[in-house]
Amino acid sequence: MLYHLLSPLADLFGPFNLFRYLTFRSAGAVVTALFISFLCGQPIINWLRSIQGDGQPIRTDGPETHLLTKKGTPTMGGFLILLALSISTLLWADLTNAYVWITLIVTLGFGMIGFLDDYSKLSRRSHKGVPGKVKLLAEIVIGTIAAIAFMVVTREPLATGFAIPFFKAVLVPLGWFFIPVAVFVITGASNAVNLTDGLDGLAIVPAMIAASCFLLIAYLVGNAVFSNYLQIQHVPGTGELAVFCAAMVGAALGFLWFNAPPAMVFMGDTGSLAIGAALGIVAVITKHELVLAIIGGLFVLETASVIVQVASFKLTGKRVFRMAPLHHHFEKKGWAEPTIVIRFWIIASILAIAGLSTLKLR
């Protein structure tokens, strides 16, 4: 909005020329989202606490300490993230850019799925919310619409091509098979972040790290000079997603203020599903789907631990981990929660660096 209102007035007032620069608007998006989070965070938490009573239902089959330390903490804190992210993006992004709208709609769509799931858990006072098949179907529908919209607004071969890291200008043509691939990336990322969200601050910081990485990737992919120099696919218009990713970083920082141990609020599925989907759709649009698996490697590990645990128990009757996802395994081993969280943050940082290195290793 500010881009459309103020940049045309640059000839009348020189400083308004700043609004034409992605870097300036991205910085503005971070600060705005952070400010909104600080301004609205406590009132929203108080409101959530007043309407939720005992807070998020705690699983009785989970780590025993959660029944003592997590009880009474409100959930749906993802609403704060979505509020700050949406307002900041609408203020600072170029609203004529189709990629911005596709990304924002996917994020809010998955956030609505998460909201309904959280609401179901609260109303039934159970950790079981909306049936998994129903959630997955809704996610596939939104992902399919997003993939088709991307194909419509993007020229070939980028519209249906699949980029391979480490190889210069390699783009595998997928045709209509691009749709299920894109849906898999979006829904997979969404549910991977959801599985990781189990300890105070555990999911939000790796998500913020990943968003920071894709802020840079979106800026580079959208710039013809930088993308040519790095030998990566140039997707015109994707630079505006740097503003969206910057807003996500600011919203995540603001939420972390209230989610840091001991958490005053949980993001719930409202936040985790939305954040994961946002990372997924940005990866699809910027042609860095496989790089997301590296940058978000922590989310992949957490998901893999659940898959291995379930498969092992069904095939052999034995469990590989004491409890899945992986962070609960270390809780069962006696690791303190802050120890697990900080060590997982370190792993996420290392994987993010590894993912970014693919930009140059061609």
Give a brief description.
With 362 residues, this protein is an all-alpha fold. The chain has helices at residues 2-6, 22-52, 66-69, 78-92, 98-124, 132-153, 178-196, 204-221, 224-230, 241-259, 268-285, 289-295, 297-316, 326-332, 337-357, and strands at residues 161-163, 171-173. The chain is built from 15 helices and two strands.
Q: Tell me about the largest β-sheet.
A: 2 strands, antiparallel
- Bin the helical content: 55-70%
Low-confidence stretches: none
Indicate the mean pLDDT.
Answer: 91
**Lateral strand order in the biggest sheet:** 1-2
Oligomer: single chain
Rg result: 20 Å
Enumerate how many helices there are, as a single number: 15
Number of domains in the coordinates? 1
Alpha-carbon distance between the two ends: 38 Å
Structural class: mainly alpha
Encode the helix/strand succession as letters: HHHHHHEEHHHHHHHHH
Taken from the alpha-carbon principal axes, the silhouette is: globular
Q: What's the number of extended β-strand segments?
A: 2
Work out the strand percent: under 5%
Give a verbal description of the structure.
With 362 residues, this protein is an all-alpha fold. The chain has one domain. It is built from 15 helices and two strands. It has a two-stranded antiparallel sheet with strand order 1-2. β1 and β2 form a beta hairpin. α2 runs antiparallel to α4 and α12 packs across α13. The radius of gyration is 20 Å and the shape is globular.
